From TrEMBL:
Record-annotated Catechol dioxygenase N-terminal domain positions: 34-106
Gene3D superfamilies from the UniProt entry: Aromatic compound dioxygenase (2.60.130.10)
SUPFAM superfamilies assigned: Aromatic compound dioxygenase
Protein's recorded name: Aromatic compound dioxygenase
Length: 299
């Protein structure tokens, strides 16, 4: 009962009431916004077709409901399990690709985007350039990450841009997952100077498994998939007058680049960590320029 000729034919060709889905869609009221009407109408049609195509049982439907409820109960200001479930089925990465492709249709594309992930915090501490986000970690490779934020059109430096950075520790855990880490370990916010420069000390990232104790982990087990993410550092870069960039950068030497459990790797986000000489604070360096597109750029 495959949906090969469009969703309308799935309903019409099935053994089930061919008018039911349209009846549900047409129940939408006249004050609904056009976008809400479009998105929800499409969602209802696709999810009804999915149920018919697979002849979904009551037990299977309820198992899905219970998994969604489980994700909600586990989510708080430190962890977003619903988002993690979207990640493991590739939905957030797909939405990110759609957003990035639209932005890339501008004449001068900004730095590529990547998914936010479930461990972002809004209250990261504001730090001075050349300071460190590493606290009480003695088994990692300290890296001096620096670069310039540039206007993607003029190529001129962007002063006053905020760079929000966060990463997991060497044990594979973000600080809000690990009571042994100090609060806000391995995260901070930096502001570019008049030359567009930013710089801070962080860890060379290491691969880690996404949390396996919730519905996202359960789903991976049911699908016989591994939970590992390639080594990466999260960034959000924003400045008034520019489109913000949410992204991740990935270590070229990581073994999971081609098999990321949340499908977030893009070739343009793969970077090289190089040896650093003459700096007593770090053994590695990452020079990473970031390009922001002006808000006025159209598709």
């Amino acid at each position: 009962m495959a949906a090969t000729n469009g969703s309308a034919n799935v309903a019409a060709d099935s053994r089930f009431d061919p008018t039911f889905t349209q009846h549900v869609i047409e129940a939408t009221g006249p004050k609904t916004t056009p976008r809400m009407r479009q998105v929800m109408g499409s969602l209802i049609r696709h999810i009804h077709d999915f149920a018919r195509e697979n002849e979904l049982t009551i037990d299977e439907w309820m198992a899905g409901v219970e998994m969604i409820n489980w994700a909600g109960k586990m989510s708080d200001e430190k962890r977003n399990e619903g988002q993690l479930m979207c990640d493991v089925i590739g939905l957030e990465s797909l939405v990110d690709e759609i957003t990035f492709k639209r932005a890339a249709e501008t004449t001068d594309a900004a730095t590529a985007s990547a998914i936010l992930g479930p461990f972002f915090r809004h209250d990261a501490p504001i730090l001075e350039n050349e300071s460190t986000i590493v606290h009480d970690v003695d088994d990692g490779e300290i890296t001096y990450m620096h670069g310039k934020v540039l206007d993607s059109v003029t190529k001129k430096p962007v002063a006053g841009a905020w760079i929000d950075v966060w990463q997991a520790s060497t044990n594979g855990l973000y600080e809000q997952q690990d009571n042994d880490q100090v609060e806000h370990n391995l995260r901070g916010k930096f502001k570019t100077d008049e030359n567009g420069h930013y710089g801070f000390y962080c860890l060379r990232p290491t691969p880690y498994p996404i949390p396996f104790d919730g519905p996202a982990g359960k789903l991976l087990q049911l699908l016989d998939r591994h939970p590992y993410r390639p080594a990466h550092i999260h960034l959000i870069v924003q400045r008034e007058g520019y489109k913000p960039v949410t992204t991740q950068i990935f270590d070229r030497k990581d073994p999971y680049l081609k098999d990321d459990s949340v499908f977030a790797v893009k070739d343009s986000l793969i970077v090289d960590f190089t040896p650093l000489k003459g700096n007593s604070k770090a053994t590695l360096e990452l020079d990473y320029p970031i390009h922001l597109a002006p808000q006025g750029e159209s598709h």
